[in-house]
Amino acid sequence: MAADETTPLLPNGTTEDNSRQSSLPSRSSNNTDTDNTTSDDHHHVNKEKQWSLNPLTLLTRLHVETRILLAAFLITTSFSFTQVPIFYVFYLMECDDFYTRHPPYAGSGDRCSRNEIAAGTATDFSFLAMSTTICGTVNLFFAGWLVKKIGPRLALMAQVLVPAIRVLTQILGVLAGGRSGIVIFQATQLITVLGGPVGYILIINIIVGEVVSPARRTPVFGMLQGCFMLGQAVGYLTGGMIGDAWGIRRPFEVAFVAFLISTAYVQLALPYVRPESMAGGKKAGSKDKGVAAGFFAPLKVLAPQRVRLRSGKEIKHFGVVILCTGVFLGVLATDFAAMLIQMYATAVFGFHQSDNGWLMSEFALMRAVFLILLFPRIISSGRKWYAKRQSKRQPRRDSISDERDPATQGLLIRPEQLEAPMGTCAEEEPMVTQPPTETEDTHFDLFFLRWSLVVDGLLTSCAALATEKWHIYLAAAMLPFASGTAPAAKGVMTEMCSPSQRADALNALTLVENIGRLATQGFFGFVFAALAEVGKPHLTFYCNAILAMIAASVLIFSRFPPTGSELIEADDAEEHVDGST
Fold first, then answer.
1. By the 8 A CB rule, do 502 and 281 touch?
2. Matching PANTHER family, A to Z (predicted)?
């Protein structure tokens, strides 16, 4: 009989019977071997059960989104341990420096409660923030370049480990005190070039953009921002309490240990993604444009896009340019809110380190609650509402469905739609799922972005009416409910650009936010100092509110590319030119 694919490997014939009979004399020995094998198998099963209870195994079994969000929480907590103590240290060092140039304090009450000291603290802290942001801008380019070279996980480990060295050097500034301590603190910010908060936030957002499905991207960006805020809430509160209980130096020591723990967690829990497998990674056969070109590649995203319409006509699209302009103005208006409330409470209501710790913890905790619990539901419900609203206003786009190939309906056929596997980069087969509706969804994200700035401006203006301490706590609880601007902007930005530019797009948007953060800390820091000199620091809130309204007005002119159009990338244009020549 001819053998085929259904023929068993061990035939049921005389061969089996003969082998069975030949084995009868040695049954006892075989029983012994069977018993040993059974015991070995039982021991192997016990080892598997013990291994299944290993914390590392349990950690890696969590969903990739959960592991990324937990990493964001741990790292942000490590950074936030010293934020409240740093401001209070500057307040004390400025007070000491003030009385080295003035007669000793002879009155009753807090000797540091003077308008000159509040203004000096605001000025010196603004310089610190500006130097941090300038170094963070360089770190932003360095982190984006490092991701393309060694991958996001190793790059994130570097961004977390380097700040541990900075924390150790800041202890010297605490011990020095006075003007010398202020100078030491400002000098240690140079370490931020190699690793800092800007770089790690960028890399975590890049990881989300690579491993999260398109439909989940904007909600996860919001939850990620919420985990940042939750980490800040825990770090602000515990940092201030640790400083009050065990001295101002202790929060810096705790932060050092927390950075080491976070570095180990990143290595053990986050997924590994090779640089070549990323959407913006180097393609096979592509030319290496050099270190400088890769270092400043995000700047190309900020240029006007070239779009090919259905008719074949090529036009320039300014949606990304206007979006980045509006985001810059929005950051300029809103990013100083947390620091403004802290400075206002310290100068007007006499808040101390623990008070500021509770205040900033409340502010960050409310932002975390909004972004983790409410923001995803707002985006999900808003997309459905916006889709129904658009379907009533304009006819159904039958031409779009006609252009789709029925054979590919429901298939994930693009690389960015596939989740990055854990510990390997083997290719995956396309899997059947619901077809994504990215364009309709992200239209609401842009709508939400505009109105979020309007609400933020209204709430900020109300904070200027505070006349009691509990008014400050109420303002810190209400302002976070308009904090969905940053994640919504990231979701819109990633959809306005091509998949191959996603990492550079997030890098470019982070750069715009960083420049806006630098401008707001310098500009509104000096504005607050000037208004504090004349006894009217509350007017700074109105300046923030007006600027937020201007940012919302600018975003009205930001649009997605026309329906049915195609983005023309720079590499495609160069290949077209080379082919024509």
1. no
2. MFS GENERAL SUBSTRATE TRANSPORTER, ZGC:174356
Distance CA 470, CA 525 (A): 24
Tokens 């203004």, residue? Answer: 119
Distance separating alpha carbons of residues 301 and 64, to the nearest angstrom: 28
Question: How far is the first Cα of the chain from the last one, in angstroms, to the nearest whole number?
Answer: 65
* pLDDT over threshold 60, residue 500: yes
More confident site: 212 or 61: 212
| pLDDT at residue 216, as a whole number | 81
Provide CB contacts within 8 A for 221, sequence distance 6+: 205, 208, 486, 487, 488, 490, 491
| Cα–Cα distance for residue pair 338/125, rounded to 1 Å | 14
Rg (CA), the chain: 29
CA distances to 69, 206, 271, 292 from 151, in Å: 19, 10, 11, 18
As a residue count, the chain comes to 581
Percent of the chain at pLDDT > 70 equals 74
Would the CA dihedral through 23, 25, 29, 34 be positive or negative? positive
User: Which of 89, 465, 14, 16 lies closest to 250 in space, CA to CA?
Assistant: 89
267 exposed, middle or buried (CB, 10 Å; 0-12, 13-18, 19+)?
A: middle
Helix pair 214-246, 64-80: axis angle to 10 deg: 30
Closest CA to 414 of 436, 398, 397, 392: 436
Calpha distance 440→446 (Å, rounded) = 11
- Between these two residues, 41 and 297, which has the higher pLDDT value? 297
Distances from the Cα of 243 to the Cα of 89, 235, 249, 355, 439, angstroms: 10, 12, 7, 12, 49
Q: Residue 148 and residue 17: Cα distance in Å, rounded?
A: 63
Kind and range of the H or E element at 568?
strand 566-568
Place of tokens 């103590």: 85
Check pLDDT > 90 for residue 400: no
List, in order, residues 6 or more apart from 32 with CB less than 8 Å away: none
The pLDDT, as a whole number, for residue 535 is: 79
Residue identified by tokens 């940042």 is: 228
What is the DSSP annotation of 419-486? PPPSS--------B-PPP-HHHHHHHHHHHHHHHHHHHHHHHHHHTT--SHHHHHHHHHHGGGG--HH
Opening angle at CA 57, ends 54 and 63, nearest 5: 140
Average pLDDT, the chain: 75
Helix (H) or strand (E) holding 307: strand 305-308
The answer on pLDDT for 414 being more than 90 is no
Please write the tens of the pLDDT for every residue from 58-104: 676 778 888 999 999 999 999 988 887 888 888 888 888 888 887 77
Query: Would the CA dihedral through 367, 369, 370, 372 be positive or negative?
Result: positive
What would the pLDDT profile of 361-372 be if each residue is shown by its tens digit?
788 788 888 888
pLDDT digits (tens, 9 = 90+) for 255-301: 999 999 999 999 888 888 888 776 555 544 445 555 555 566 777 87
Under a CB-based contact definition with an 8 Å cutoff, are residues 273 and 210 in contact? Answer: yes
CA distances from 182 to 161, 171, 185, 528 (A): 24, 12, 5, 20
Cα 353 to chain centroid, rounded: 27
